[in-house]
Amino acid sequence: MNRSIKTGKEEWNRLLNLLVVAGEQIFAPVRKNGSLDYDLIDADNIAELVYNEAKPASPLKIFFLPVRLNVTSVNGMPERRIIIGAPACDIEGLKLLDAIYIDEKFTDETYQSRREKTIIIGAACHKTTESCHCTVYGLNPWPASGCDISLSAIDDQVVLTATSAKGESFLGEIEKQVSFTDAGEQVLGYIDKLRKASGSEISKINKGLPGTEETGRLTEAADANFWKKHSSKCVTCGACSAICPTCSCFLLIDKPGFEKIKQMDTCQYPAFERVAGGEDPLKELSVRFSNRYKCKYVWKPQRFMVLACTGCGRCTDACIAGINKNQVIREMV
Amino acid sequence: MKKNSKVISGNGLYKVIRATVDEVIDESPLIKTFVMTPEVPFKFNTGEFIELTLDGYGEAPFTPSSSPFVTERLEVTVMKTGYLTEKFHNLKPGEVLGLRGPFGRGYPVEKFFGKEVLIVGGGCGLAPIRSLLFTLIELKDKLKKVVLLYGSKTPTDCIYKPLFARLNKLEKFETHRSADRPDGSDWDESIGLVTKLLDKPLVNLKDAIAVVCGPPIMMKFATLKLIEMGFGDDEIYLSMEKNMSCGLGKCGHCMMGEFFVCKDGPVFTYAEIKHNPEIWK
User: Fold this and answer.
1) I want to staple A99 with a disulfide (CB 3.0 to 4.6 A). Which of A304, A309, B17, B268 is the partner?
2) What is the ipTM of this complex?
3) 3-class DSSP assignment, residue A207
4) Complete edge-to-edge strand list for the sheet that includes strand A68-70
5) d(CA A198, CA A135)
6) Facing A275 at nearest CB: one of B5, B241, B249
7) Which structural domains are found in chain B, ordered by start?
8) Structural domain boundaries enclosing A27
9) Does one domain contain both A141 and A60?
10) Which residue among B12, B59, B215 sits closest to A252, beta carbon to beta carbon?
């Protein structure tokens, strides 16, 4: 059983301040202009941190896959970095990124060092948004593994549960700085109730939406006309991929001195698969559009045995053409 | 071209090995072979590919056309077909390129032992095949027979002309060529598509495997014809051409269904990939 400890919110904020003063880099969700997103924490914004709401606007991957990175020169990573408030959907998405970037043959050092040096403090979603649908894919809106610590803030208390050895050692470290007590069954029971309630809410609003495997079958069965119809409004902006916790494709750009710059890319952009001879399997917009669905629901799950859509719903939130991914899937049925 | 650029440290996956161009061979009006000396001996298995960088301009995948038994020199055959390959064609001896690799899965030559090997190549697709042929020459005692069929647009577009004369003198090897159309130059071989060469009985199907490499349209029709002739889906080896950019199974540009062609291929049996209707695109 994982160890759970609690402290008062004021003590917690004092701890964060101590860590910031000690030079730790901490990112956590803050609401700015109505939008919840990760921000670098300093002494001034500690009190503004938002806990246990649904996902921040940016996916967790931004901490491991920067938009642009020189992969041939030494990369400037701090000794340690703490991310607070990662939702379960994003944490689940790291399984796919790990499988791609840290495989048995080729390990990407820039990715691996960021993963190793980061402490992820996940947070249960006590609230949900209209686009959340993690439960449809068998997930719960609270992290149980894949992160180091799970955090729940209730009333004036912050409860931390270690979910990895790294998390356990971090708890040991912070217990020396401020006072924590055992969380106790009553508090944990209350948290469980809150998070289960959001799980039920997500299941309710997504009733009838098929799971990963069924969506995969439907995606493969959908014909060219279906994709033409649903892609007709797509403007190829790539926002769906940029905001997706599992989209991880990139472009290599050459710079003098045999330097290589890795820049995030997407199959939604024209010429993604074009070869020098001119052949381009994804030339048509509708084929590029369908490629993303097939990648998420057929190919990546088949290849890596993990989810490639974790139900965060950001692609729907981000689409400027108003394309609702789940509505597209419902129309396949 | 910079010859003494600063030393790069960091992520080893993207670091290049420098290679100096020793010789540039004109193979056809559009195809050149670059003979290079890498700064360290370069080992690869036939059919595996490399990423070749023109400093500051770009990088592209090529399968070496030279013998894997030679590690101190490397040959890459390049068709002029776009911005980067045009730049490659302007290279002069003494200039320095960068290479990464080898990457992917090449030809499983040990599976060819005791068999008759039927090879169908088209255009610049003969480049990986030349490397395979150099390998098969070394291993010919273990093979029953090697038949090479090669098609080019015109007789002038036929590359590696001395190779055919050499192979035809070797025991167990035979070659047949076809040009899509004549162009007035000397040509005493067939005229027509390379698949026409498959009409003649060339190998004993009971004991044969086939290798196909060339433009997608040629690969498609050659494969269909081989199946019609009676080859099993797992007896046809295809070298797939996709936009292999990182070579590491990460960047996603070469995805073909669930496969990363750069890592799982570029050599596949038809049996492995035939469930995907989009392989010929």
Assistant:
1) A304
2) 0.92
3) coil
4) A68-70, A259-264, A250-255
5) 10
6) B241
7) 12-103 (2.40.30.10), 109-239 (3.40.50.80)
8) 4-205
9) yes
10) B59
